[in-house]
């Protein structure tokens, strides 16, 4: 008995010492981290031969900067999540990530098991699949229903004209503003303002023609969008700086956000949360009433880096996590974010979440949520958008149409 | 010619300097050579560097962002040099009048200099935010709200204010040491001649402080070319690109645009420009000072 125990101990020890050890970076978000720690703990217990170490993407201006710095320093993890399609295209361009197609039928089986065949198509980069999509967050507007009610509204305004009317009743240009029109000055903020408005106003038309490498938003609808942003700033119905938590303290009536804010809001502002109403992004006054309103989809996925010590082992872990629908259930419980699955509204495993008003609201927008343009120039384009489009509009530097034309010209130069 | 040291002594000497030589070679020599190589190549971290001659240098000449940053740097210099010189000088002069707790005061100001840039940037960002405590106070007292970081020109001033706060202690100490070295006899002689306090300051103190003032100015000029943390964390280079600096641009180019070759070229050009500027300052403003 003693001998068997010793042999068993030696076997376990040798398995552990010869185990593949992979580093996995997760998004710097406590709820996502919690999910990954839970599933990785289960995996590590089950597979002593492939041990995964979970680390949060190091603090930096953005996850992209942290990952690129790590690649430059030769400290890239084996695989990581929180990768948006444009960044994946950039990483694929420099050969930093490994195509998942290389896993052949195993990869196809996983795609089928997770019901994401069509979703995968929107992530194709140069004919290959480099990213495994994890979630797809439609961006929707949250409104202060309690304040709207006191102003005589039973539902949030839908069009630019309706927002102007509301602004005249509520905004004073000093301490009260209608909504957060511009999300910030980081490059990624353009997803949550101009790009979202453009998707909404055009019925989901791409803002960049990736094939022809030119800007689409210099059209009439683009003009309507910039006019809206300009009008809001010109009349002081919105402001450059709105302070800390302006939505929750009643400085603004509306803001655009993703489901990642739900759990935090419930914990931090429990009195405000029950009064939140949802709406699609605002649209021009002539937008057809019967047509659905599109929005931006904040889509993020998982990649395996070319420098990964054992790519097959990393893929085995990924397959194990995402072929089990219960892990997607756990994902929603922890993060409130809709997994990138096509059976979200039909699979009984997710039925219980439809009782949650937040999840229901976000899930209802999934079919109308459009991901960002798949270009390796995303960061350059959106930084240029900030400098040449958003900031001149915010600071009223010129006529909206001129500002738009200049921005289109500058971005076309980048794309050419 | 034979050395006056034996083999053992020479080896001992080498062993003493070896760690420093190794450190210099690894952390200064190698990166420097690599930087020069990169400036003449195109590289994206993964591919092999491709020689492209002077293309990166020519690109700088047509890069509108570089021009914007050059103007920003002049703007920063125009604010920062007078602000930091005046504040440090006032601090140094005040120190000479303090009788008790001088060490404590000096240490209090030096704490700012050794504080984490990230920590104080976030602190100031909150203090000066639109609904932060400073604006709340201003609103209560005078009914005004100042957009410290969202007005393009004010943002430069606000960032210079933070940097000045950080360096008052350090530069003030340099000036204070210099003030102490001015012989009292000069002041006594001036007083006997009936010079006013203002005359003493302008005709004696300030001219004799020239070497230290030049040192502080040179340090502040070099500091201006190295501004990164404050605008990166507080304004992100905005508004309207007014606070974007060479370091922010280098960082963005290297780590957002995946173009380390161009980033190093910008770094080389920035270093040369700052060196030239420092040389010019020394040539035109540095004066020999004699106390006799």
UniProtKB/TrEMBL annotation, chain A:
**Which Pfam families does this one have?**
SBP_bac_1 (PF01547)
Xref: SUPFAM superfamilies: Periplasmic binding protein-like II
| Coiled coil (UniProt feature) | none
PANTHER family, per the entry: ARABINOSE-BINDING PROTEIN-RELATED, CARBOHYDRATE ABC TRANSPORTER SUBSTRATE-BINDING PROTEIN
**Name of the featured protein:** Sugar ABC transporter substrate-binding protein
Q: Species name for this entry?
A: Fervidobacterium pennivorans
